[in-house]
Amino acid sequence: MLKIQDNNHKPIRQWENITSQKTVVFTVHNASLVDCFEDERGVTVFYGFLDQEHTGNSTAKFVAKQIEQTGVAGLNQCYGSFIVVHYEHSQQKFTLANDALGDFALHYTTNGNVISISDFPKALLNKNNLAINNDRLLYYFALTQPSQNGCFFQQIQQLNAGQCLTIRGQDMVVANYYRPPDTVNYKTRSIKDLSQQFISLMQTVVKYQTQGQQRVGVMMSGGMDSTFVTVNCLQTQKQVSAFSYVFPNIPQANESVWIDAMRKQNLKQGFQSLDMHTFSGEAYWSLKSPWHISLNTPVSNPYRLLKSVIYQNAHNRGLKILLSGVFADHLYTGYIYWLVDQIKRKPITAIKSLYSLSKQHGIKMSLKQIAPAKWKSRAKLSAPWLSKQAQQLLGEKDKQQQVIKHPHPQQYTLTYGIATAQAAWLDNEYSFKHNIVVRHPFRDRRIVEFLMSIPAWVLGDINNPKRFVKTASAGLLPDSIIRRTKITTLKPLFIKGVLDKELHKVRDLLADTSCNWQQYINKKLITTMLANPQAHYQDSEYLALWQVIGFELWQRRLDSLRKR
Hints:
By secondary structure, the protein is of the alpha/beta class. It contains 20 helices and 17 strands. The protein has helices spanning 59-70, 134-142, 191-209, 224-235, 256-269, 304-316, 328-332, 338-345, 347-368, 388-399, 409-416, 418-431, 445-452, 456-459, 467-473, 479-482, 491-501, 503-511, 523-531, 539-562; strands at residues 2-6, 11-15, 23-28, 34-39, 42-50, 80-88, 93-98, 107-111, 114-118, 157-158, 163-168, 171-176, 215-219, 239-246, 274-280, 321-323, 437-439. 44% of the residues are buried.
């Protein structure tokens, strides 16, 4: 049997004529994203978004055809964020899969002949399967990417990006249907031509991610990535509502000048299709009550309240889809290999670059550009804020890391990592509550594969880390955004909440004798921060404190579930 139900266990669709030895129960958290197709060959359930042209109105029918033609490898021809359940009558076989980048995650658990699956682990939890996956916790506290099961619960499995689970009889096999390209195209191509290709690709992706909606929203800061998405969305003839938060009394976080530049350009060019909405974000500090605690994961965005205001405003204006510029920096970080790529492919140019660089920045900075770590096929795991025991465990995991064949290992790990995919689908937990779906153009596989194929020296260098996107943005964005050098940060809002307004809550929470965070994080670091909240700390130390808070709040939520 195959059964689809919503997160309140209300049936959506059920098939009794399936003769598999296993029963599959699929719980979804947004019933409007479900599409089903059935013919004499089998049943296909598609949950999510298919971001491409396809004949007919049924996404499930299109996906079924791809699988019937070439097997599960046919999913390589499917772009978007989704989970697929496919059953073949002749083979009595289930195929369960998530999208190539894992932006809709498939979680599953087994109980006898019943396989329960869901887009969020919460739907699969009960009093008997709340044991924690300690390996995943280690990576969580180390602020790095796990290589295997990303779920925080031992008895709930999460498919990696581009994986499928095949079920036939009593056999269950997990395999990869998608493997990210591991090569860079070093053929000579002008940055102008590549930029035009990028713009065209971005507009195609935006069009597909917003198909069916003439009016869409964009979460727009004053940075280049979200404004780039905004202007390209306008180029697709959409009616765009841009939502921005500003901080008049927090200069380090305030991006008003660049948001105003977008407003002025809009008025100058006469875009009737851009509607801009700005609100002050200063009242939405981290941990401000009511602060929702997810059961799905301890991972928590400290600036979630800001996003929730945008979700609600978008919903009030009748919007269904919000675009973001998030995850662009994961792709642009490939620039750090600019000199290494030159040495490998353009040695004469590299010598000239090294000479010029040493004159500008000195020998020490020059040598950093070709540091040994940039030649290795694995990024070294390092987290000095961990406890000694956790550091030892992390060192053992470091030796087990897979070799990355792509010439830019750090860029590859950030882009294709499990934690990155989790950050994408966790947005949906909160946006769904406002009947909003968040889409990320920089997580589209076509854009990801394109930017991952570009030589590092084209993406940028030490003097101009965002050279490529700046070139692509010329004539589209205000010059003040393209030439922007000032870096803003929401860190003051974090400090205002965690180490000021809500400090008493944090101290009470972390002083509780039932806390377990000391197993993972250097106790002296956290106690020092709580005793001296006005002092200045490293960004990584603030992040470590936030991970501790998220973990302990999550533990309390799980404890309440255990006691029911």
